[in-house]
Amino acid sequence: MKVLIMIVHSNSQQDLSDLLRSLTQIEGFTFSHVEGHGAKEVHDPFLSARDMVVGYVPRVRVDILLDDSHVDTVLDSVRAMSSGGNELGVFWVTNVQNSGRL
What we know:
α1 (13-22) packs across α3. The relative contact order is 0.33. A four-stranded antiparallel beta sheet has the order 2-3-1-4. It is globular and about 40 Å long. With 102 residues, the chain is α+β, with helices and mostly antiparallel strands. The chain has helices at residues 13-22, 49-54, 71-81; strands at residues 2-9, 30-36, 57-66, 89-95.
């Protein structure tokens, strides 16, 4: 098992949610609201005047537990969503040693 973690601008949350719900490889996902800080934000195409004043960019963290064989399919679908030239965000994939319900 893997966990796919993505950090995307909050403006893309609804479109991303619609896409993720349509993928049969995904049983569920979690959105968490986070704040992006860093020097690279200056070149962010989503950066608004409000973001520059308050000093952070509103972001959404997406966590998805996936079978190893589904990671590339899901990433390809998300990349296709952002094919308009704007970078959607960043991602990383980590191994899951154990999972279950409590």
